[in-house]
Amino acid sequence: MEKVICIVGGGAASIAFLDGFMKELKGKQGSGYTIYVVEKNPTFGPGAAYYDDLGSNLLNTKTGFITIFPERKGDFYDWLHNHPEHWQWKYPNFDASYDTYAPRPLFGQYLQSAFSQTVSNAVKMGVKVVPVNAEVMDVKKHREGYSVETACSISIYADYVFLMCGTLENARQDTPKMSSGVISNPYPVSKLTSWLGKNKNIAVIGSRLSAIDTIIALKEAGHLGKIVMYSRSGYFPSVRGTQGRFSPRNLTPENIKNIKSKKSSLSLKEIVDMVKDDLEFYFRDHPDDPQEPLALPTPIKDFGAFLSDEITLAEGPRGWQAVLYATNAIIDDLWGLIRDEEREIFRERYLSMFLSYRVSIPRENAIKIKKYFDDGALEFKSGPVRVEKNENGLPMVINEMSAEDVFDFAVLATGSPKRLSKSNSTLMTNLEEQGLISSHPHGGLEVAEDTYRVIREDGKPENGLFAVGEVTSGKFFFTSALDIICRHAQRAAASFYEDSHKSEYIPYRADGTR
């Protein structure tokens, strides 16, 4: 009997899920599956993160490292060199060498190709994959299965639904086409540069990747008005050094699995000690690298001096970055081991500083930001703020002291809202109203750790409804990195297949054998 799966979202997670599911079906021709992939953007593969936009939006992972297929290291790099005709005309100045940082829209072209390749592989195995260009507004539960309802009145009936929606936007407020207002999502930044007047005064709320993309896009388009970046935490991303990948000794999947078999939890101190031990191991393995310590950063007092120091340090390898990036392989399992009370402490006291260390930026972007700052074209302010409108409809940025800065536009470059109710997602609102999903206290929605089934309002798992990606950040903590998204998507595929074929299931090994 045919089984129908509907994937909501046609970005990176959907590619990884399809790839993982095809591995599980290997050797089973005519498997009897139809898989709908519903994507609101015109192209399948890039999703919102890598959608066609300005080339100034850069990846923060090196060209030689990043891939959508975990077992095919360097796949993006190989694609660039095997298919120059697909991209060189659009990015003639991009150096496709191993250690460069590619434009994100270029990586989106690669993902578009990867999606087509994955669909082709599925069809060869007898799986029907049906891409549908539409925005999903609701998923309704029936006695058997679900109906996936779209904005264009298409209804898809499915036995199973996977929510792979990517990053949720803040609730929409104004559009850049207006003469002033609050812009809830900076992407695509090409719209900002096309619609915002060059002499407008702009507040950018946030200081991480989307804020940096926004500022660079505006300045490279010739913006002349005042731009102020507001870092609510007082932190700014570190600048990525020249180091390569690192194989840790303590922070490995095997070691974490061994720890979980012996004890139910870890303290923050124990985790910090493991990181320090691996950093010592890194320095023993790389004795010629600068032995930059891993110290708790403090909120920035002198932005220009901070950038100067970071840019200088990033000229060489930074061992602590190699160690922290290596935690991608275990960060969700590690998060699950931390005691509840210590998770709260971490989120309240250390999350912003952790993200400033963990989510770094390419040196070339840091140099641009410093130039804007040195030229007086950019200001950096720190501390909690809120955005309101004055009597003339202009956005005001109000700080703790109730001081008001008035702008023509305020751009909210703050990532996904913590609460589903604060997002622009009609789908999530409708699912919550039906009680089919429940909010996680730390953000996103609640899911079962091993199966990725969503947890309903009544606390029970919804058997045919699953979620993967940024909407599960409350459960898995750090879900924005591509390799982490891919791992979760492939785990979800394996878990789903195992549940659906319990009598015949043999786990798939990383080397392609069973």
TrEMBL record:
<dbReference type="InterPro" id="IPR052189">
    <property type="entry name" value="L-asp_N-monooxygenase_NS-form"/>
</dbReference>
<dbReference type="InterPro" id="IPR036188">
    <property type="entry name" value="FAD/NAD-bd_sf"/>
</dbReference>
<protein>
    <recommendedName>
        <fullName>FAD-dependent urate hydroxylase HpyO/Asp monooxygenase CreE-like FAD/NAD(P)-binding domain-containing protein</fullName>
    </recommendedName>
</protein>
<dbReference type="InterPro" id="IPR038732">
    <property type="entry name" value="HpyO/CreE_NAD-binding"/>
</dbReference>
<dbReference type="Pfam" id="PF13454">
    <property type="entry name" value="NAD_binding_9"/>
</dbReference>
<feature type="domain" description="FAD-dependent urate hydroxylase HpyO/Asp monooxygenase CreE-like FAD/NAD(P)-binding">
    <location>
        <begin position="7"/>
        <end position="167"/>
    </location>
</feature>
